[in-house]
Give the backbone structure.
Amino acid sequence: MIPDEILQKAKQTLFSVHPTLPRREYLTQELEDAKAANARGYYLPDEDERLREVYRTYLTARAALWEMIDNLSPHLDEKDSRIFGLTFCAAAALVRSATFLVNLAKNRPTVWKKLDEAEPRYGLQRKSFTRIYKNISSIRWMWRFQEASRYYAQHRDSILNDLHGSDLSQVAAWLTSEEEHLEHRRRAFLERRVAYRIHSLLRRHTSGYTKVMFHLFRLSGSAVAELRQPFKKNHRVGKRVKPDIIRKIQPLLKPGDVIVTRHDDAMSNLFLPGFWPHAALFLGNSETRKQHALPEHPMEYDILEAKKDGVLFRQLSETLSVDSFVVIRPNLSNDELAEALTRACSHEGKLYDFIFDFRKTERLVCTEVIYRAYHSVGEIKFQLTKRSGRLALSAEDLLDQAITHNSFKVIAIFGVQNSGLLYDGEAYTCLRESLQISSS
């Protein structure tokens, strides 16, 4: 049986991402922009920004959902309809969003060229949209998706009943809303020039659960491979932070420490500025939490961290399954620290904010947990910076402001330019160098 923790993480990811995916009814301005830009032959600056933001949001959500599907793949053989419901809902939403973007651009050369442009500010590579179009038009890709669609249609009632019976009623509702789009895509698929070949495939005996799920995971596998940054590292080597490094750093950590991390090959590095993309808050064990009057929790945990599955309490080993990290410590009194950590814990359970909107608190990104915990506590102040048209605080900004204003002390650093574990002054110098590398 699939562990509840894995199922819950997949659910949280889908719940965070699904509402952010582009939908035609919410993008009337962008559609008007596309018509106007194609008529004049170029985009105006404000039109350009709106289109870039929609596209970046789609790519970020796409990466998170394919990773979610990929994480469920080890449980393929369990024949659990909840796994199918989650994965198929994610795949259907991605196909619908990609189809919308393709329809926006396919008869508008100006829009297509704009989406294919490289844009370092948004982490967009040249010809990225053309690659998406090839995927959505691929006979093999769409055949696999249609096999999954047929399985859903034949087992619809039992799938929806299982979702309703396991706290996944929203997924069932989303799947139901996708049905009209599924039928439309099926008709469009069958009308292609290669219809005779497609018909021969679709007329074969219905795939069983395992075969259909294999197709879904094959889709995700190819997508995840495409999303990893090529040539960054040999994936068989694993992360550079090994258990012995965690054993060395763990006794030095204190509640309130901020751990900023990096995966060398993470696709999120392309969408976020600088060398350091991610941050987490160390809370300590149950004994140290009692010392700081923090709320109790039924499970043992060390970290509060916002990832694609939401703002959750996590284990230190999960947070430090990375290639590089730096630890900084706030200069606060015990009472001030208790105030900050209590603030932070009040956000546990919220969904991840794929829009990166710091103006709202209903969803948070990783650095926003730190920002909302520490800003205006003691002498700590953070200045938000406008990025992608929104005010936000990147992990690079957080580190730079923390050490520039002396509101945090650098405790340790590991993995920068093949460095080992460094402490105090050496760690501070190494961090400064990494920030300079980022901005060069």
